[in-house]
């Protein structure tokens, strides 16, 4: 009951009317949004549509499959904040995990929120799983030139510096939008990442396109862009 109360406070009805009704419909909208900037989030690999399938050009970006070549051959839409991270804070998750939450309107809103979805090489998406973000000792490159490390034992994924701010602003958006909890340690790390990796041109354009479809923007992206412009900076790709 309390979660639903927060959702009503935090989500304007106008946004609810336009937001994709399901994860599947959100993925279809995102394919169009990314059609002019078809680049995977973690690895920077270009991708193209092969019918309904999105396929990355692994050779061009120097990606090497760690273990699952089949999954590496496709693009998947990954939740930056994992479904587990927002789902387990809902009562439905305690009653049966993600399957039980499929019927929960709050969960469906979060799951389909396009601000929290990015294109990722399937293998990286699978390896990252529901792990939190953090720093991994060393620079072992298990995926060729793709700058992402996953510590399976510690359950931590370290993304490239170029997307850390994007991740931070997404987490803060999800926290505020849906009344979610972040730990103090997590918040401090993400605040640092947001400072060291400011908003760039594509992040701003992506936000604009999602706002046009979904009905709301990410205020952390918009505030970051205003700060940069007021400081006399330029938005670079």
Overall, the morphology is: globular
The description of the largest β-sheet is: 3 strands, mixed
Number of helices: 14
> Could you state the order of secondary-structure elements as H and E?
HHHEEHHEHHHHEHEEEHHHH
Q: How much helicity do the residues have? A: 40-55%
Distance between the termini: 43 Å
Low-confidence spans: 1-9, 12-17, 229-237
Domain count, please report it: 1
Q: What structural class is derived from the secondary structure elements?
A: mainly alpha
C-alpha Rg (nearest Å): 17 Å
pLDDT averaged over residues: 89
Beta content: 5-15%
Task: Please count the beta strands (DSSP E, at least 2 residues each).
Answer: 7
- Which strand order does the major sheet show? 5-7-6
Describe the structure.
It is a single chain. A hairpin with a 2-residue loop joins strand 1 (47-50) and strand 2. Strands 5-7-6 form a three-stranded mixed beta sheet, with no helix packed on it. A two-stranded antiparallel ribbon has the order 1-2. Strands 3-4 form a two-stranded antiparallel sheet. It has helices at 2-10, 13-18, 23-33, 58-61, 69-72, 83-87, 91-94, 97-101, 105-111, 122-128, 161-178, 184-196, 201-214, 219-230; strands at residues 47-50, 53-56, 75-79, 117-121, 132-133, 149-151, 156-158. The chain has one domain (2-230). With 237 residues, the chain is mainly alpha-helical. Helix content is 50%, strand content 11%. Mean pLDDT is 89; it is low at 1-9, 12-17 and 229-237.
């Amino acid at each position: 009951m309390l979660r639903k109360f927060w959702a009503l406070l935090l989500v304007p009805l106008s946004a609810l009317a336009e937001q994709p009704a399901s994860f599947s419909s959100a993925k279809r909208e995102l394919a169009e949004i990314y059609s002019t900037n078809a680049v995977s989030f973690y690895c920077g690999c270009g991708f193209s549509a092969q019918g309904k399938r999105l396929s990355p050009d692994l050779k061009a970006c120097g990606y090497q499959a760690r273990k699952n070549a089949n999954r590496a051959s496709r693009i998947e839409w990954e939740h930056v904040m994992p479904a587990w991270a927002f789902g387990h804070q809902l009562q439905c998750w305690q009653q049966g995990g993600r399957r039980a939450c499929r019927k929960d309107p709050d969960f469906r809103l979060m799951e389909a929120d396009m601000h929290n979805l990015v294109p990722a090489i399937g293998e990286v998406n699978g390896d990252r799983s529901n792990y939190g973000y953090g720093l991994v000792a060393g620079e072992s490159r298990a995926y060729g030139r793709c700058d992402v490390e996953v510590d399976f034992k510690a359950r931590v994924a370290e993304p490239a510096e170029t997307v850390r701010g994007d991740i931070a602003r997404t987490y803060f958006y999800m926290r505020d939008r849906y009344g979610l909890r972040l730990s103090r340690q997590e918040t401090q790390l993400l605040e640092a990442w947001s400072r060291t990796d400011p908003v760039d041109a594509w992040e701003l354009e992506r936000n604009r396109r999602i706002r046009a479809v979904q009905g709301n923007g990410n205020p952390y992206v918009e505030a970051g862009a205003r700060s940069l412009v007021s400081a006399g900076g330029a938005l670079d790709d």
